C-alpha cells in the first residue's frame, strides 16, 4: 500500500516552533579555525535540536588538514552547524557555525551573506589559526567579537596581550568563555549584540 504524501507531513516539534512573541530575527555566524569549539558552542546554546554536518575524520585527510594541537579530534564540520536561541521574548538569533578547515572556506561567503555579526572563537594554544579568519571577516565587513574558548590546558593571557597578538582595534570586545556551557556561550552572544547596538548608535548621524 502506498501512503499519500499528505500522510508523511509532520508538524514541527513543539520545542522547535518559533515563539509567538518573536518580532525580530538576526543571523549570526560562529567562525574560527579548525577545532576551536564552534560546533560545541552552537550545540550548547541552541534551544532547538541543532543541525550539524559533522563527518568522521579519516587517514585520507592527514596530508590535507593541519591537526596540530588537536590530534585527538575525530570528527569535523564539512558544511555548517545551525542552531537558534531566543535572547528575550522578541529577539531570536539564528546561529550558523562555519567549517574550520581551509579547504571548506569557499562556503564562508554564502554563510556571511546577510549576517549582522560574528563570534570568532579562539584557542590561545593556536592563535595563528585565527589570523586568516579575522582577515576574512574584516574583508567582508562583518563586525565581530572575540570569544576565547578556555581549554583546560591552555594558558591565560591578559586581554591587551591578546588584542596585540591578534592586531585588533581597541573597540572589538574580547571575552573568555567555556563553549560547553550554555550560560557562558549565551553571554558571548549578548556581548556581540551589545557591541552591534553600540556600533550602530555611534555611526548614526547627529
TrEMBL record:
It comes from the Bacteria. The keyword Hydrolase applies. It holds the Pfam family ATP_bind_1. The keyword Lyase does not apply. Transmembrane segments: none annotated. InterPro entries: Gliding_Motility_GTPase, Gpn, P-loop_NTPase. Signal peptide: none annotated. Keywords: GTP-binding, Hydrolase, Nucleotide-binding. Belongs to the GPN-loop GTPase family. This is ATP/GTP-binding protein. The lineage of its organism: Bacteria, Bacillati, Actinomycetota, Actinomycetes, Kitasatosporales.
Amino acid at each position: 500500500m502506498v501512503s499519500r504524501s499528505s500522510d508523511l507531513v509532520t508538524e514541527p516539534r513543539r520545542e522547535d516552533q518559533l515563539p509567538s512573541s518573536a518580532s525580530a530575527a538576526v543571523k549570526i555566524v560562529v567562525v574560527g579555525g579548525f577545532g576551536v569549539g564552534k560546533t560545541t558552542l552552537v550545540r550548547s546554546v541552541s534551544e532547538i535540536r541543532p543541525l550539524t554536518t559533522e563527518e568522521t575524520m579519516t587517514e585520507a585527510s592527514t596530508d590535507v588538514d593541519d591537526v596540530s594541537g588537536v590530534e585527538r579530534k575525530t570528527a569535523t564540520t564539512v558544511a555548517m552547524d545551525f542552531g537558534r536561541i531566543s535572547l528575550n521574548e522578541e529577539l531570536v538569533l539564528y546561529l550558523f557555525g562555519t567549517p574550520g578547515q581551509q579547504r571548506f572556506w569557499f562556503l564562508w561567503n554564502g554563510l556571511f551573506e546577510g549576517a549582522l555579526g560574528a563570534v570568532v572563537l579562539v584557542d590561545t594554544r593556536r592563535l595563528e589559526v585565527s589570523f586568516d579568519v579575522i582577515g576574512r571577516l574584516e574583508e567582508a565587513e562583518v563586525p565581530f567579537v572575540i570569544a576565547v574558548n578556555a581549554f583546560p590546558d591552555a594558558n591565560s593571557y591578559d586581554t591587551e596581550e591578546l588584542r596585540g597578538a591578534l592586531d585588533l582595534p581597541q573597540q572589538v570586545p574580547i571575552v573568555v568563555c567555556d563553549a560547553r556551557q550554555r550560560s557562558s556561550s549565551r553571554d558571548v552572544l549578548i556581548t556581540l549584540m551589545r557591541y552591534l547596538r553600540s556600533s550602530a548608535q555611534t555611526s548614526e548621524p547627529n
